[in-house]
Amino acid sequence: MTSFGPVAISCVGVRKQFVLRHTRSLKEALVWLVKGRKGDLSKKFLALNDVSLEVRKGETVALLGLNGSGKSTLLKLISGVLQPDGGSVRTRGRVAGLIEVGAGFHHDLSGRDNVYLNGAILGMSEKQIDDMFESIVEFSEIGEFIDTEVKFYSSGMYLRLAFSIAVHTDPEVFLIDEILAVGDEPFQRKCIAKIKELAEKGKTLFVVSHDLDLVSTICERGVLLEHGKVIMDGEVHEVVGELRGRSLDA
């Protein structure tokens, strides 16, 4: 049995609710106005309900579930993009997340400026970024476009640069959300090789992907969410098998 280090990610009783503001019909809106605006036309959606889990340093975990199960919401809470409505989320060490393509990029700045901006956000000093800059650009395959404003980049170019910056920060915890679905196949293979390299170095990986074969090769553990609750937590092949069964029944 693999021995892991201290807790890298801790989620205790995590709850997250979203308010979906929309009117179902004109008649409903008129009734609401006639009644003096009493009641609430908005609809509440409980994305996560009392989620508790621990991920230890060096673990590789696949967060799995059907669409709407709460996977991306949980990853955003762990990354700090969102805050929980209840419970607690704690992380240890530097956390780098590929949660959304180009998230954190300033569209009016060049690729070069965004490397320095994102590197600083992820905790790197200017000298560290200077030392790694050529390697970041080389891995990203952006080349001559590094001094172009990123608003002119394709989604694939966003991905390559964002991924390259994130892996060069040498994070202790690496969060990945469906990011490998974007970009061409050769770069996807390059990303997967880099992720496996991080895993071999003992980095903590938390991965959301619909590519069940891929997560089965990268991750050792699987956590299955359904309607915002953890319903299974165990060896990745067993959890993938359970999800496949539920997908067929859905």
From TrEMBL:
Q: Which domain of life does this protein belong to?
A: Bacteria
SUPFAM superfamilies xref list? P-loop containing nucleoside triphosphate hydrolases (SSF52540)
Q: Which UniProt keywords apply?
A: ATP-binding, Nucleotide-binding, Transport
Which intervals hold domain ABC transporter? 26-250
Q: Carries keyword ATP-binding? A: yes
**Is tRNA-binding given among the entry's keywords?**
no
GO terms for molecular function, please? ATP binding
Q: Which InterPro entries match?
A: AAA+_ATPase, ABC_transporter-like_ATP-bd, ABC_transpr_TagH-like, Bact_Polysacc_Export_ATP-bd, P-loop_NTPase
Which family would the database say this protein is a member of? Belongs to the ABC transporter superfamily.
Write the protein's name: ABC-2 type transport system ATP-binding protein
Q: Which organism is it from?
A: Pseudarthrobacter enclensis
